[in-house]
Amino acid sequence: MHAETATAAAIPLHPAMNRAPYGPLRGSLAALRAGICAALLAAAVTVSPALGAPHEVLGLWEDALQSESLPPFAHVTPDAPKGGRLRLSAIGTFDSFNPFSPRGVSAAQLGLTYETLGVSQRGTQEFIMRGLLAESFDLSPDRSTLRVRLRPQARFSDGVPVTAQDVAFTFTALIKQASPVYRSYYEQVQGVEIAGEHEVIFKLAAGTNRELPLIVCQMPVLPAHWWQGRNLGDPQTDIMPGSGPYRLTGSVMGSRLIYERRKDWWGQDLPVNQGRYNFDTVQVDYYRDVSVAREAFFAGEADFYSESNIKDWTNAYNVPAVRDGRITRQLQEYASPMGMGGIFMNTRRPALADRRVRQALNLLFDFDWMNSAFFYNAYTRYSSFFTGSPFAAQPLPSAGELELMERWRDRLDPAVFGPLPAQPGGGRDTERQRMRAALHLLEKAGWRIQNGEMLNAQGQPLNLTILTSSPSMQRVYTPFRNTLKRLGITLNVRLVDQTQYVSRVRAFDFDLIQATVRQSSNPGNEQRNYWSSTAAGARGSRNYAGIRDAVIDTLVDELVAAPTREDLHTRTALLDRLLQHGCYVIPAWYSGSMRIAWWKDRITPPAEQGNEGVDIMAWHVPAAGATPPAHAIPAAAAQTHREAR
Predict the structure, then answer these.
(1) Rounded mean pLDDT of 489-504?
(2) Whole-structure pTM over 0.85, yes or no?
């Protein structure tokens, strides 16, 4: 994620909350357990005639699997050498080892310590799940009942077996104690029944939400025995035993984490894990900002670095280790759906509740000039809430969209039935023309310039504050602030530390923030968390703009329940059209490539990395030998974590 698009995605969320990459680097908390699919697999469980005919694969559509096998992942080296150490960097700090709590800032890479029921198939545009903790799935023909059988060999790191009781406990704790986002995400799951020591049955509402069974399989499974007497909604400084490939063995709170690969990991021989989790140790060091983290990488204190700033990628890498080839630099193509990124305007604030004000702010943001002046014309502007996806709205509504909109003709702006709004700002119109148009919109909304200030009818000034935790973003906002000042609008830039930033964004305590809402290849249940009225009032949701629109609520429900691909495309395109007409975001910019660098004598990427982002857990030490063990933590500051049984 680029520094120039520093986002609210830094807020810890479980990967189930967003099936798209949480960021291009796929070794993070949002990491998906992907691997080689070497075995021949049965047909998708969506065509299962009845319960009692389990399969290892769960698909969104009946024709998702048209052959007898899934293609193997091409981004791993199946016989990669094991051993050595991977050192990564993180920005800010952390104060909790519980990524499911709505409070606190959770530690990086905790996703290495626990697992989900299933894992998404990499290398396909279809939404397909393979079993991870789950040995098999069986979905009823009406999609209202999902039976999941757990692998009997699965164990938590304290040796306790993973059982159906853990699954049932996790589901209940997530919807009752954890972040409110989970309650919304799983609201159509009516309950979980324990059908045996290693078997559970999920009851699904209506059966119309096609992706709900797959969403259920993204659920993590937590140890019920360890959480007795603890609340999943509270930050934790104790370490939870997990079923994943690593355990957290040491930390300096807020500054360093050390994970060690479990020698007794039950899942190491599963086909989905072949070629992954190759390092004996994963060390994460925290730095106060990206410039310090970059210098630490140049000094050899980290093995891998993903550059977030195009200016620094161009100018800051003239260092000895790069010049003599010890550090390798690479542009890695990244072709997954991009979604929408930009300055989200909080409609919970009275001044921003008026679409005309938001439209005026859009007009006053000159991306083309900024891309040339700051970014070497290296970025592309977001053009849709589904940028880079076939679901993005076309310039004119389709016949299917018009048919859907006809039901709400008396509630929709007539402009929605016509072309999409033109991309705001930029070189098509002169700055003077755009400012004149913005001033006209503000006047229609009841604002006037008096004595150099933009005031409403009550004499209140139009003062806005953009909240950020990224020092590098201040230079980006300066031209925008200067433009607004010419119309009597005050834009303050409030720089806060990461902990305060996370807390304020979760509570929607901001006027403006720079954020990115990524999309998956199959939009579905997560759209409620992005755009629904319910999410607008749920602390910690990703409805940053506070959208409350009954038409959008209905459309999102219909999108989730789309019976065919064609219906899904039509409903998603219409959702995109309504969101674009709402002017909730000033679109920012993205790059189709990641800028990555690494010390080539310490870590090695797989031969083929694909275009879905960097899966750092598929890298390994060079075949010639392993790197030294992790740095010892000073005894005075160290915490040695013992997992309670």
Answers:
(1) 93
(2) no
